[in-house]
Amino acid sequence: MTIQRRAFLAATGLLATPRLARAQQAGRLVILGGGFGGASAARFARDHHPRLDVTLVERGARFTTCPYGNLVLAGRRDVESITFGYEGLAARGVRVVRQSVAAVDAGRKRLRLADGAELPYDRLIMSPGIDLRWGAVEGYDEAAAARMPHGWIPALQQVTVLRRQMEAMPEGGVFVMTIPDNPFRCPPGPYERICMVAEYLKRAKPRAKLIALDAKNGFSKQPLFQDAWRELYPGIVEWRGASEDGRVVRVRPAAMEVETEFGDKVKGDVVNVIPPQMAARVARDAGLADESGWCPVKPETMESARAPDIHVIGDACIAAPMPKSGFAASSHAKHAVACAAASLAGREPPAATYFNTCYSHVGPDYGISIVGVYRGTPQRMEEVPGSGGISPRTAALGERAAEHRRLEALYADGWYESITREMFGIA
Ligand SMILES: Cc1cc2nc3c(=O)[nH]c(=O)nc-3n(C[C@H](O)[C@H](O)[C@H](O)COP(=O)(O)OP(=O)(O)OC[C@H]3O[C@@H](n4cnc5c(N)ncnc54)[C@H](O)[C@@H]3O)c2cc1C
């Protein structure tokens, strides 16, 4: 450990906390991952549990959100406008440690950081997100992703590469997108992406086509997306589900070609492969994932089903029927913090209610959404009957349709603004 780092940890009480100082703390809450779940947890813990000692460990200096990445593809946003730093959280008293976590020692209740330092915790909240399953689609590895970008993890470069490829695409060219089976990050995300790419093509390359090859037959907000493709992008968007041989099993980056289950070969000028996914490595290495690659949790507290004193939240955990969304991760975060604080204070955890809303932009002044409220019980996570639903279809809205869609697009922007301000301690 460097002297600087030792001095930092000693100054913050993390290295060897004197008994007196410890007694004044309600406990050491360490949060792994500064994305939607982790940053939200840090903010909520700092604001609502002032006696907790809150440390956030994140490997990146800045965080580029996946939400609104599709708007970068449409040319409506730039990457800088969806990228945030951790100064706001630090200014609010969150101890931000910029390090990669090499290992979680659940037995000794410590994290081992990449620089060799150890970080002890009383309670750990992990929100490390996802990894891509390289090789699950034959031929799709990290080298292939340079030619056939996924744009599916907060990797600024990937969205930028995809956008540049779209700009370089010839008029009359083909954009191919491959979509995985459930579960995966952001169930409506690929379909919002279809819309945002189509919006760009309609404007910049009106003779181009987008072919989406899907490993499943049904998807989130399907009737609304399909209405929008017919209304806004006729002749541009073609979607093929699994029963129409849409499942892609192989890619050939050199030929910019993908191959389906039954041998159809589809070539694209741009090929966007969204591969199958799993919980991020740090969670799998810690033994927190099951054979599915995702982490089972107790729905009433978001505690790991596999290790004590650890909550696993966000995309990495199994919280179905909740979707893997940023909104859901933030909702898990608030409940996990409340449960951690209660447990450290020797109290019972509060009742578990979680929320989700996923907005999608589908065209100019045209937004749609899906909403759900969920209850975590010792047996399962369940949607509260009658609590949610999707936006009405255009036919049902009649002459109010345009105004309704315009308002939903505004609500989407409001949601993005408020969740990012909350997560990053901006206001
Ligand atoms: C195209 C697209 C559009 C989307 N749109 C929406 C939307 O409109 N609304 C919505 O609610 N959701 C949306 N999502 C989903 C949303 O991005 C995810 O659900 C959300 O990011 C999950 O939060 P998380 O905290 O689990 O993971 P992340 O936000 O990915 O955060 C994980 C963090 O952990 C860090 N980390 C991982 N391992 C380590 C380690 N070993 N050491 C240190 N740090 C580590 C990572 O660097 C990262 O910062 C979208 C996703 C995509 C791909």
From TrEMBL:
InterPro entries the record matches: FAD/NAD-bd_sf, FAD/NAD-binding_dom, FAD/NAD-linked_Rdtase_dimer_sf, FCSD_central, FlavoCytC_S_DH_flav-bd, FlavoCytC_S_DH_flav-bd_sf, SQRD
Keywords from the UniProt entry: FAD, Flavoprotein
All residue ranges annotated as the FAD/NAD(P)-binding domain in the record: 28-140
Pfam families noted in UniProt: FCSD-flav_bind (PF09242), FCSD_central (PF21706), Pyr_redox_2 (PF07992)
Key word Membrane present: no
Domain Sulfide dehydrogenase [flavocytochrome c] flavoprotein chain central: 160-275
Flavocytochrome c sulphide dehydrogenase flavin-binding domain span: 350-424
Protein name as annotated: NAD(P)/FAD-dependent oxidoreductase
